[in-house]
Specification:
eight-stranded mixed β-sheet; 708 residues; 42 strands; five-stranded antiparallel β-sheet; single chain; globular; Rossmann fold
C-alpha cells in the first residue's frame, strides 16, 4: 500500500458546538475537518479525510469528542422517560449475585456482588456451609470502580494468590500477589502484561508481556514482540527471566502454562491463523527438551489436563466439531494422539475433569448440554438442566464436590450442587430478582438466509404477545471469530421485555455454534454471509408478523458493531434504530492498531491481495455510507477512550463520515465513555448509565411509551 498525503485544507479546527456541518432533527453536529489524504491500494485511490481522528492524544480530537458528547447527552436528556428507565434499571440490578463456588487447597472461594457494588468481591470459606470472609475487594482499588479484577491464580503450594487487574477497561494488565496466610500484598508487581494470567511453577510464575509502549501511545500503537517471562517471588520485574520469544514473528501471541502437579510446561503460539502452535516440556525429567506437539496454525490445540503420564488435548484438528484426544507425556506429538471422545454430530465445547470422571459439554443448536463420561471416554448419563441455556461447572479431578451455574434468557444465574454418582442436582443458591420470569417465554426458530442456509434465532417475549406486526424488536448478533452466542441472562433487557419488546438473538455464520465449518462460512471472502444472515433475520420477523421495519432496532458490539454498520449501509430501509457498539468500522486500516493484526484470519487485510482489498472495500462500514439521501435509521454509536482492543478511531471516523453524509433526518450520534475500554470490567455505575442511554434511545425512536 502507498500513502499519498496532499496539501491540507487548513490547520486543525478548535471545535465547539457553534461549529457545524449541517442540522438534522434539530441536531447541529460538530464540524470535523476534512483533510485531503488518499491511500492507494492496488492502483485504487481511497480517500481518508478523517485520518486525524486516529490520533486521540491531540487537542483537536479532544475538542471534537467533547462536542460530540455534549450533543449526544443533550439529545438523550430530552427523552422523557430516560431518568425513570435509569431508576428502574438501578432497582432491578440491586440484587445479590453469587458466582459458582470453587475449592482450592481445602478452602472454598466464590465471587459475590451485594447488588450495586461496582466490582464483585472474592470471598473465602473454611467449609462450604461456614461463614465467608472477604479475601479481595476490587472496589478498594479505585474510588470510582474503574479498576477491575480480571483474573486470579492460586500457587500450587497454596501459599499465594496472584491476581491481574485492568485499569479503565484497558487490555493492559498488572499482576499483584497476595500472601494468603497474612492477606497482605507482597512486593511483587508486574506491569505491561497483556493477554495473560500468572501460571505458577516452583517459587514463581510465568506471564506474558510487551515492552513498555511509547508515552501517549499506550492505547493505539501496534502491539508487537509478545514475550514470556518467569518471575521469581521477591524479585523486581527487571530481573525476570525471558523464558520464550520469537523475534521472527513479532505479531503473534505467546503464552505459558503449567499443570497443577507441575509436571508439564505448555507454550502456545497464536495469531498467525485460525488456531495455534503448541509446544511442551516434560518437567518430570531434568533437562527434557521442548517438543513441538502441533505446528499447523489453522487448528486449535489446547491442553486440558495431565493425569500421571497421560496428557489430554482438546482440538478441532481432523474434527471440525472438536474432539478430546490423549497422548503419553514422553511422546506427545500429534501423530501419537489417540481419541478419547471422537468428533460427534454436536459441537464439543467444554471438558471438565472432576471426581476421577469427566463432565463434557456439547452445543446443540446453540444451547449447552452436559454429560458425564468415564475417564476412558464412555458416556454414562446426561445432566438434566432446567431449560435451554448455558452451564458452567467447577470441581477438582480428585474431589467429588461439584457445583454448576445455569442461566438462560429469563433464568438468572443460579447455582446447583451436583452429585455425580447419582446424577442429582440440588439447588444451592437462587438469586432474588425483581421480575416475574413466568410472564415470558423463549422460542427458537430456524429461518432461511439468502442462500437457503438455515439460521437459528432465539426469541424472548411476554406470553401474551400478539403476532400483529407491530411489536418492537431488539435484534442482536455477532457472527465471527468462532464465538458462539448461547442463551444468557441480562437484567438490562427486562424493562424492554416488560414493555412489549421482543429480544431476538441470532446465531450467525462466522460463530462457533456448529463448529469450524460454520465459522469459516462467515470469514474473509465469505463475510457477506454474516450480513445476509442478519438481514434475513429481520425479514423473517417481518414476514411472520412479529414486527415491521419501523419497529426493529439492531445492535452488536466489536465484530458485531461491524455487522450493524455493514447491514445499515446495505439495507437502511429495514431498520429503525441501530446501535454499533465499539465496532470495527474501518476494514482497510483495522490491522494497523494495537492487536488488530490478529483479526486477519477472520477478515483478511486490504494489503494482502487486490481481490481481498476489493472485498473489504465493498462492505467496510466507513467506506460504504450512502450519500444520496437514503433514509438511515436513528444511530447511536458507542466507544470508550481506553478501548485498546478496537480503538475509538473506528467509531470516531465512522461518526464523522455519517454526520457529514446525506442520510436523512434521523439522529446520528456517538456516545464516548471515559475511563472505560472494550467492555470488560466496567463498573456497575457506568453500565447502568450506558444501558439507560442505549435503551431509552431505542425505545424513544421505536415510538414506545414505556410504563416504568
Amino acid at each position: 500500500m502507498k500513502l499519498v498525503q496532499l496539501t491540507l485544507l487548513g490547520g486543525f479546527l478548535m471545535l465547539s458546538i457553534s461549529c457545524n456541518t449541517k442540522t438534522e432533527n434539530n441536531i447541529t453536529y460538530p464540524e470535523a475537518e476534512k483533510q485531503n489524504i488518499i491511500d492507494t491500494y492496488f492502483g485504487v485511490e481511497i480517500s481518508d479525510p478523517y485520518r486525524w481522528l486516529e490520533d486521540d492524544t491531540t487537542q483537536a480530537v479532544a475538542d471534537w469528542v467533547a462536542a460530540e458528547n455534549e450533543i449526544t447527552q443533550n439529545y438523550l436528556s430530552k427523552i422523557p422517560f430516560r431518568d425513570k428507565l435509569k431508576q428502574r434499571l438501578t432497582d432491578i440490578v440491586n440484587y445479590e449475585k453469587i458466582g459458582t463456588p470453587f475449592k482450592k487447597h481445602g478452602k472454598y472461594y466464590f465471587f459475590k456482588n451485594n447488588g450495586l457494588q461496582n466490582q464483585s468481591v472474592l470471598y473465602v470459606k473454611e467449609t462450604i456451609d461456614g461463614e465467608a470472609s472477604v479475601l479481595l475487594d476490587p472496589n478498594t482499588l479505585s474510588e470510582d470502580g474503574t479498576v477491575a479484577l480480571s483474573g486470579i491464580s492460586f500457587s500450587n503450594s497454596g501459599k499465594y494468590l496472584a491476581y491481574t487487574i485492568s485499569r479503565s477497561g484497558s487490555d493492559w494488565r498488572e499482576i499483584y500477589v497476595l500472601d494468603l496466610s497474612t492477606r497482605q500484598l507482597t512486593s511483587d508487581h508486574i506491569e505491561w502484561a497483556k493477554f495473560t494470567g500468572a501460571s505458577w511453577f516452583g517459587d514463581g510464575f510465568y506471564y506474558s508481556a510487551y515492552d513498555a509502549p511509547a508515552k501517549g501511545k499506550e492505547f493505539s500503537n501496534v502491539n508487537e514482540n509478545h514475550k514470556i517471562y518467569y518471575h521469581k517471588m521477591g524479585d523486581e520485574q527487571s530481573k525476570d527471566k525471558l523464558a520464550y520469544q520469537n523475534p521472527e514473528y513479532p505479531k503473534r501471541f505467546y503464552s505459558a502454562s503449567v499443570n497443577d502437579d507441575e509436571t508439564v510446561l505448555f507454550i502456545t503460539e497464536s495469531g498467525a491463523g485460525l488456531g495455534n502452535r503448541l509446544f511442551m516440556q516434560n518437567l518430570k525429567k531434568n533437562g527434557s527438551p521442548v517438543i513441538e506437539v502441533a505446528s499447523d496454525y489453522e487448528y486449535e490445540y489446547a491442553p486440558v489436563e495431565v493425569i500421571g503420564n497421560t496428557v489430554y488435548f482438546y482440538t478441532n484438528y481432523n474434527a471440525p466439531k472438536y474432539r478430546l484426544a490423549k497422548a503419553d507425556i514422553n511422546s506427545p506429538e500429534i501423530k501419537n494422539w489417540k481419541d478419547v471422545i471422537p468428533e460427534s454430530e454436536d459441537v464439543l465445547t467444554g471438558v471438565n475433569f472432576v471426581a476421577k470422571q469427566m463432565i463434557i459439554i456439547y452445543d446443540k443448536d446453540a444451547s449447552n448440554h452436559a454429560y458425564v463420561y468415564s475417564a476412558d471416554g464412555n458416556q454414562k448419563h446426561e445432566v438434566k438442566l432446567p431449560t435451554l441455556g448455558s452451564v458452567g461447572f467447577s470441581g477438582d479431578k480428585d474431589d467429588k464436590e461439584i457445583f454448576y451455574s445455569f442461566s438462560s434468557f429469563t433464568f438468572p444465574n443460579t447455582i446447583y450442587k451436583y452429585d455425580i454418582d447419582n446424577n442429582v442436582s440440588e439447588l444451592y443458591i437462587a438469586p432474588q430478582v425483581e421480575f416475574n420470569s413466568n410472564d415470558f417465554i423463549t422460542e427458537q426458530v430456524f429461518y432461511p438466509s439468502k442462500d437457503g442456509t438455515k439460521i437459528p434465532m432465539f426469541l424472548t417475549y411476554k406470553k401474551d404477545l400478539k403476532l400483529d406486526g407491530t411489536n418492537p424488536v431488539y435484534l442482536y448478533g455477532y457472527g465471527g471469530f468462532n464465538i458462539s452466542l448461547n442463551p444468557s441472562f441480562s437484567i438490562m433487557r427486562i424493562p424492554f421485555l416488560e414493555n412489549g419488546g421482543i429480544y431476538a438473538q441470532v446465531n450467525l455464520r462466522g460463530g462457533g455454534e456448529y463448529g469450524e465449518e460454520w465459522h469459516i462460512a462467515g470469514t474473509k471472502m465469505q463475510k457477506q454471509n454474516v450480513f445476509d444472515d442478519f438481514i434475513a433475520a429481520a425479514e423473517y420477523l417481518i414476514e411472520k408478523q412479529y414486527t415491521n421495519s419501523n419497529k426493529i432496532a439492531i445492535a452488536g458490539g466489536s465484530n458485531g458493531g461491524l455487522l450493524v454498520g455493514a447491514c445499515v449501509n446495505q439495507r437502511p430501509d429495514l431498520f429503525r434504530v441501530a446501535l454499533p457498539m465499539v465496532g470495527v468500522m474501518d476494514m482497510l486500516r483495522y490491522h494497523k492498531f494495537t492487536i488488530g493484526w490478529n483479526w486477519a484470519s477472520d477478515y483478511g487485510t486490504s494489503e494482502e491481495s487486490k481481490e481481498m482489498f476489493d472485498y473489504l472495500n465493498a462492505y467496510s462500514p466507513i467506506h460504504n455510507i450512502k450519500n444520496d439521501g437514503a433514509a438511515y435509521p436513528a444511530i447511536l454509536i458507542t466507544t470508550a477512550d481506553h478501548d485498546d482492543r478496537v480503538v475509538p478511531a473506528h467509531s470516531f471516523k465512522y461518526a464523522a463520515t455519517l454526520q457529514a453524509a446525506n442520510t436523512g433526518n434521523a439522529p446520528k450520534l456517538i456516545r464516548i465513555e471515559t475511563k472505560a475500554g472494550h467492555g470488560a470490567g466496567k463498573p456497575i455505575t457506568k453500565t447502568i448509565q450506558e444501558q439507560a442511554d442505549l435503551y431509552s434511545f431505542v425505545m424513544y425512536n421505536l415510538d414506545m411509551k414505556p410504563k416504568l
